[in-house]
Amino acid sequence: MVSFEILLMQLIYLFYMISGVRSNYRTFILILLLSAAFVGSAGNLTNAASLTRASDTEEVEQSDLENKREVTAAVKSDELANAKFVFFDVGQGNSTLIVGPNKEVILIDTGRYDNYLIFKLLKQEEVEKIDLLILTHPHADHIGNAESIIQSYAPQEIWMNGDKHTSHVFERVMNAVHESKTGYHVPSIGKSYKIGAFTLKLLHSSCGSNDLNNGSMAFYLSYGQVTIFFTGDIEKAAEQAIINGGLVQRVDILQVPHHASSDSSHDFFLRRFNPSVAIYSAAEMNSYGHPHKEALTRLKKVAKKVYGTDMNGTIKIMTNGVNYEVVVERSEERKVMPSKII
Ligand SMILES: [Zn+2]
Ligand SMILES: [Zn+2]
Questions:
Q1: Which of 42-56, 135-149, 197-211, 278-292 has the lowest mean pLDDT?
Q2: How far is the CA of 89 from the centre of ligand 2 (A)?
Q3: Which of 111, 161, 244, 252 is the S-S candidate for 118 at Cβ 3.0 to 4.6 Å?
Q4: Are the CB atoms for 138 and 163 separated by under 8 Å?
Q5: Would you kindly state where each structural domain of the chain is located, as residue ranges?
Q6: What DSSP string runs through 190-227?
Q7: What is this structure's pTM?
Q8: Strands 192-195, 105-108: parallel, antiparallel or unpaired by DSSP?
Q9: CATH number belonging to domain 78-338
């Protein structure tokens, strides 16, 4: 545009320089100048057209990107209806429900032994059967209601890590497992399992040391492009072992290890998984002081949002396998997060 203006000024200057020539020549030169001006503006129009094409090209690239996202999804796009992940408020314990688009149901841990909130919560979510029950480790705040859950819902499959505990709660759970005839399965580290539309990949499990928290099963659960990392009650030793295991990837959501205790969620661990959302489970005013301040500080440095069942009640994540929405029980806050943040 600037170069065209300079050209026009030069032509006008030239016209006045030769204005002394005969009038019929002046008319001829004026026509020449007007033609030059027309060609100049036509040049500008050509530029405008090429700008439009440039933006068209951007749109094409954008849709190409979208196509690529579909191609890289873990499940086919036609399988990606809504799924939900429900982090139950079961007081000082853990329990998370996962329901897929074809009503496939996974339950991870069953709350604590001294309350029965889990049954009310499962009813609220209209759960009628459980396909896979995962008990991350044998502590009573994770397997609390597993005996009754196994008897009432008869899960198709039960995963345990092979660790044993001397508690009565654990004994009763093992009796229920054996009576169910389902038995239990110890999944293999590094292997991917397909459960309906979900893919589970185990990163860590007990090595038989009887360090029950550090023996918790830790695994990715993916739905399309959305990945949640479940960590049970792992502490520093398991966090280090997981990093050393070399199966690290960025995750969208982290189930915060060990109720956001200070002996877990170390910087070296969180930085490698880089979650957008972190969710811990703890009772309000619990005797352990969970969540510990140090853990919360470290989590807030990495995650864009940290939720806790003590503050937010039951926390529900709805996802179509690409994006997800976090809905909390005890707040007006509703936030839509893209699954991939560059
Ligand atoms: Zn626990
Ligand atoms: Zn534990």
A1: 42-56
A2: 17
A3: 111
A4: yes
A5: 2-72, 78-338
A6: T-EEEETTEEEEEEE---SS--TTTT--EEEEEETTEE
A7: 0.75
A8: unpaired
A9: 3.60.15.10
